[in-house]
Structure formats: structure tokens, C-alpha cells
Amino acid sequence: MKFLLIRLRRTGDIVLTTPAVSALRAAFPDSSLAYVVEEPFARLVQGHPDLEKIYVLGRKGGKKEFLSLVRDIRAEKYDATLDFHGGPRASLLTLLSGSRLRVGYAVKYRRYFYNRRVPRAYGQGPVHSAANHLNLVKALGVNVREDPPLVLPGALPEEREHVDRLLKQAGPGRRVILHISAGNKFRDWGVENSVRLVGLLDRLPGVLVILAGGRDDLEAERIIRERAGRDIPSLVGRLNFIELREAVRRADLFVGPDSGPMHIAASTSTPIVAIFGPTLPAHFAPWKARAVILQKDLDCRPCRQRRCVTEDFRCLSTITPEEVFEACRPFLS
Q1: The pTM is what?
Q2: What pLDDT digit, counting tens, does each position of 243-265 carry?
Q3: What residues contact residue 41 under an 8 Å CB cut-off, 6+ apart?
């Protein structure tokens, strides 16, 4: 059989589809699996051991590019398409794929794009995102006896060499990779908290804090270094997704908010201290990872991350650097 898998964005969401990819490969070992992803996130699946083909769609690609992709997909005559996304473009692509079996979530307005539908929410309580993706595979009649772990492509030789150089420049010590952002203000723990946490971790002998983040975090990196009063080693804006995974794999601890990099970290054996604000660990906890989760029980959680009803982001602001430090200590003693 030939399967087409679709997940257009974003980092963590794509990472959380990989247990479903593994389950599908285990159930159909002789099948052909292809994956549709958007350009900024393609490296997360390029070279994945269970995928034969990757289709890359431009993030802001127009109608011409979209129709060209549809033609390429229809020419392959896929037997089944699984839409892990459920967004407008992904569901339309599923409908136009030409597959006789189209599996997706029973979302409002787009449920009729699929001929086999899976609930996204269940009455008995929240379901983890990775488990929800596995439910699409189960909808094919597959018996998933044990939930697979997260699987990402391995680093290429040049990517490993790049990480080697950066970690050598950072210096020796027990490495703590501190991810300093989360993609939006609702999940951003803040530079002041990062500065205070760095100061606390500096008290532990032999511990080396290394900052991590994307190119959009260079200003936050500058402020943290300036206020910390020292040149903190940093990987901010210098790594692709798989290089980040390689750096985390070699670290002693990863610390950061609920974010794509947190899920990348969960694909390694490195322990995690995760800071959760508006989102719930029941939906997005590090999958099958050794992790400590910090959160506050508030009536306003979870929220849709459109407006903070208390206007002070208290779900995050009340998680103190001292609390995070105490969660880190057992992993660094």
C-alpha cells in the first residue's frame, strides 16, 4: 500500500506525529510512506527512517504551487491519506489527493473531506496530541499494542561537526540547555526569569548553562547576556532543528517552556524540566520522556492564547526561577 501523511505546521506538532509514522510502518512494513510538510519545518522529516518521500510546500505558496503539488500527489495514486493537521489547506489537499481512503479529524466544517473520521476531543477527558495522531492509524484497523516513542532523523556528518565546534567553544561542564523563548508571548517565560535562573544555576559547581533559541530570539539573547553580566555560551540562531536535537542529546538537562524545541528534546534521552503556562501537559507533555513539569492550577487554564483574561500571564509569571532551579538540581547533583 501507499500512504500519504500530511502535517503542515508547526515544529512540535510535526514531531508529535512521529509515533504514528512508526506505528504505520510497523503495521505495513512493505508499504510506501510519503509526508507533506511546509518549507520551514522540512528538516524535521527529511531523512526520517520510515519515510520514502517528502513533499515540501512553501509556507506562503500560492495557488499555482498548491495545484502543482496536487498533480504530483495524484500521479502517485496513494491508497490512503492521513491528515494529521485538519487545517484548511491540509484538509483540501486530503480531499484532492485522489486516495480512496481519507482519514482525518471530525472537525467542524471540514469533517466531510474525509471518509473515515476520528474525534479530536473525547468526553472522558483530554487526549495527548501524539495519542490523537495514533488514533488516525488505529482508524485503519491497526492494533497499536505499545505507543512508539518520538523518532527524528539523525544528524548528518556536517551537522554533527557543526555541533561539535559550538559545544567545544562553549567549554567543559555539565551542560544545561536553556531554551529562552516559546514562539508567542503566552508561553514565553521571560528574559528576567531566564537571567535569574542562570544566576542560580551558576552556583552549582561544574554546571555550564548554554542558551538556545531561533533567530527571532537574538535580542532576548543579548538582553540575558547583558543583565547576567557575562558572556553566556549560546546556540541561539545557529542551529537547525536536527542540530538542536544533536546538541540536546549531548547535554545533561534541557530546560524550557512548552514549545517545539521541548518536543525535539523529548526525542532524546536527556531529561527535561518543562514550564507549562496556558497549555496542559495532558495534551502536550514531553512524550515518553524523563521530565519534570512545572505548572500552576488556575481556573483560566487552558486558554486559546488569544487574550490573557487576567492580563498578567500569571500561569507563567507565578512559576519562579527558584522553583525551576529546585527542579533542575536533582539532575545536576
Answers
A1: 0.96
A2: 999 999 999 999 999 999 999 99
A3: 9, 10, 11, 14, 241
Say which amino acid occupies 325: F
DSSP state of 186: T
Domain 158-332 has CATH 3.30.460.10: no
Asked if 107 contacts 86 with a C-beta cutoff of 8 angstroms, the reply is: yes
Looking at 3.40.50.300, 3.40.50.1820, 3.40.50.10260, 3.40.50.2000, the CATH number of the domain 2-138 comes to 3.40.50.2000
- Do 2-138 and 158-332 show the same overall fold? yes
* Domain ranges (residues) in the chain: 2-138, 158-332
Mapping DSSP to helix (H, G, I), strand (E, B) and coil, where does residue 90 land?
helix
Dist. CA 7–CA 31, nearest whole Å:
19
d(CA 216, CA 204): 30
**Quick check: 203 and 227 in contact, CB under 8 A?**
no
CA triple 68-74-76, angle to 5 deg? 110
Rg (CA), the chain: 21
Could you report the per-residue pLDDT of 148-190, keeping only the tens digit for each?
999 999 999 999 999 999 999 999 999 999 999 887 888 899 9
The answer to whether the beta carbons of residues 237 and 175 sit under 8 Å apart is: no
